[in-house]
Specification:
By secondary structure, the protein is α/β, with parallel strands linked by helices. It has 3 domains: 85 residues, Serine Threonine Protein Phosphatase 5, Tetratricopeptide repeat (Alpha Horseshoe); 128 residues, 2-Layer Sandwich (Transcription Regulator spoIIAA), CATH 3.30.750; 96 residues, Transcription Regulator spoIIAA (2-Layer Sandwich), CATH 3.30.750.24. The protein is 46% helix and 16% strand. The protein has 14 helices and 8 strands. The strands form 2 sheets. A 4-stranded mixed beta sheet has the order 1-2-3-4. Strands 5-6-7-8 form a 4-stranded parallel beta sheet, with helices on one face. Strand 3, helix 7 and strand 4 form a beta-alpha-beta unit. The longest helix is centred in the N-terminal third of the chain and has 17 residues.
Amino acid sequence: MSLNGLPRGGNVRSESSTLDFTIAGGDLKRILAQCADKVHVEEGVDEMAPPAEEAAILFAHGGDDEARSVLEHALEGTINADARFNLWQMLLDLMRLTGQRERFEALSLGFATEFERSPPAWRDLSSPSARVSNEPKVQTINLSGHLGGQAAAQFAQLIQIAMRAGALRIDLARLSGVDDAGAELLLRAVRGLRRAKVRLSLGGAIHLVNLLSGLVTSGKRANQSLWLLLLEVLQYTDQQDRFEELAVDYAMTFEESPPSWEPPLAVTASQTGAEPLATAARTYVLEGEIIGPNTDTLRKITGFAADKTMVEVDCSRLRRMDFVSAGMLFNIISQLHNQGRLIVLTGVNSMVAALMQVMGLHQVARIELHS
């Protein structure tokens, strides 16, 4: 097992990760004109208000201010209650996607007054590269190969680096295996840094979760360190349900109380950049901004779905898609739908969901909005 990123001579280097959110598009009026001939929504079948369609396409191609203007103007003249609710959802999500908290909170009051219900809670969904931060970039340590007990010295150095810097990112995506002794080393390091209030990010956490899941067996009292590491790493993902299920299995297997769900004090996205794309055992993850030529991410859905009758695509970290990518996604999902597979797109923000409906994706997949 090797640890790449450890400095020689004991000096800590500060390395930054960057994100490139490139918007494919150009003149927005030209884009809308091109899209107008390609978009068709059947009358009476989940029909969407024209302003919602226009705002979705504008946002898809980077026209955040133009999309907001369209939505606000539409709310001034729209009477239909269902259409107004959809427009409000899109506008509030747009504020979250562009990091405009004060405007979001002002609009939330109007939403609550009109619909007599609580508005969605504030969440900053803006791209990490758009957030202003004075936090220093932190170093990334890459773990690779088979993680075993022979790495004790490297882990001691890793802990020293994290304690000095107050933050660290550990990339687990290149690990090919882990044994009980190696699991104990990583578990102690992660728990120790957590207790010391060190901000820690685990890149490729889902990869390690999948690796460990194949090494533990419910009811078999063996490899306890692997169980505990799996429970620990799951807390660095958004899979609380999966954590709770495993915690129950752990309690029944080892007849002792499992750890409780306590999301860690993580390194901020502005310090590390985005997590790499990862596929969990049950879901395929789309995240960030899928723009123009970035199509490999979408093509891999077909391979992921090969042995599944129900295909769940987690879109909770997907900020934006452009028109071309949404069209490619429609083609891929249509083929899977025609094969008799059920496709569920979960955690979709309202702006992307509107574009998906413009493209007709709601006719071949189930689209579930995020909270």
